[in-house]
Amino acid sequence: MSNTGAGVGSPNLPRASLVDEVMGHHVVGGVATTVRITTADLSAQVAEAIAIDRTAPKVYATWAGSGALALAAQTPGAANLGAQIPDTDTGTHVDPVTGLTVANAGFYASAPKVGGGFGYQWIAPTGLAQKAAATALDAETAARIAGDADLSAEVADLDGRASVAEARLSSVEAANGSAFLRLSGAETRLLGVEAATAAAAAEISAARGGEASLDARADAVEARVAAVEAAAALWRAATAAASGLDERPGDAPWCFSADLAGAFDDKVPLDGALVRESADGLVVELQGEATVSPRRVWRLEPGRVFTVTAAVRRAVDPVDPAIDAVELGLVALTSAKALMPIAPVVLVRSENLFAIDGRVLLSATVAGEAGTDIDVVWPAGVVYAAVYVRTFGGTHRTQVETIRVEDTTMLALVAGAL
Question: Which CATH number do you get for residue 391?
Answer without folding.
Answer: 2.60.120
